[in-house]
Design brief:
- By secondary structure, the chain is α+β, with helices and mostly antiparallel strands.
- The protein has a single domain (16-187), classed as Gcn5-related N-acetyltransferase (GNAT) (Aminopeptidase).
- 25% of the residues lie in helices and 25% in strands.
- The chain has five helices and nine strands; from the N terminus they run H-E-H-H-E-E-E-E-H-E-H-E-E-E.
- It has helices at 16-21, 35-46, 56-65, 116-130, 142-145; strands at residues 26-29, 71-77, 80-89, 91-92, 99-107, 135-139, 156-157, 166-170, 178-181.
- A six-stranded mixed sheet has the order 1-2-3-5-6-8, sandwiched between helices. A three-stranded mixed sheet has the order 4-9-7, with no helix packed on it.
- Helix 2 (35-46) packs antiparallel against helix 3 (56-65).
- Bound molecules: coenzyme A (COA).
- Coenzyme A binds next to helix 1, helix 2, strand 5, helix 4 and helix 5.
Length: 190
Amino acid sequence: MNIEKPKDVLHSSHTSTQRRMAPEPQVRDELPADAAAIAQLTAAAFANAPHTSHTEQFIVDALRRTGQLTLSLVALKGEDIVGHVAVSPVSVSSGARGWYGLGPISVAPDRQGQGIGATLMQRALQRLREAGAAGCVLLGDPAYYGRFGFVVRPGLTLPGVPAEYFQAICFSGEWATGDVKYHEAFDATA
Ligand SMILES: CC(C)(COP(=O)(O)OP(=O)(O)OC[C@H]1O[C@@H](n2cnc3c(N)ncnc32)[C@H](O)[C@@H]1OP(=O)(O)O)[C@@H](O)C(=O)NCCC(=O)NCCS
């Protein structure tokens, strides 16, 4: 995930009806043996996504290596890993505690548009709420993430990116204010 540039929307050819009919994937925490499959899936999901640095698989690995993977959920179809979402802590310049960044999120190219991304989003947010997180931020298209409750929050910013792509959701307490900083694992290039 390139956190310096906005993502373009990748429109799926699947219809809403097809998505509603698809059974929900099984979702679980990653296991140590999943790392290679997650990297492969992440690279494949972002291969044709515009405005990425194509380093998302390295970011996930670096987050794992540095102990920053607060959540690493995989979606399964049968035994295959077809989706993944990472969540890691972020810091906020005001000193607000308990805020997290969601992403990268990836769905296998041939499985996109079937609701797998939505299931992963909902599970990740549910887990954060249950863990008592204050809120969550992400960089992405508002047309997709707005449906999960993310909004552009004036005063909560990611320096260097267009404001409309940086969104947040507050679970409890007061909204954080200030500049958000992702972990340095997001600079990983290999
Ligand atoms: C973004 C992504 C995770 C969504 O997962 P998915 O399983 O395809 O999404 P769902 O089936 O739950 O939802 C499909 C809806 O999302 C929209 N959508 C899919 N990818 C999108 C994207 N990157 N940005 C905005 N909207 C997107 C579709 O147009 C569809 O919209 P509709 O409900 O109005 O018809 C997946 O498409 C993906 O892996 N994309 C490539 C990697 C990427 O861009 N990740 C996000 C940035 S971190």
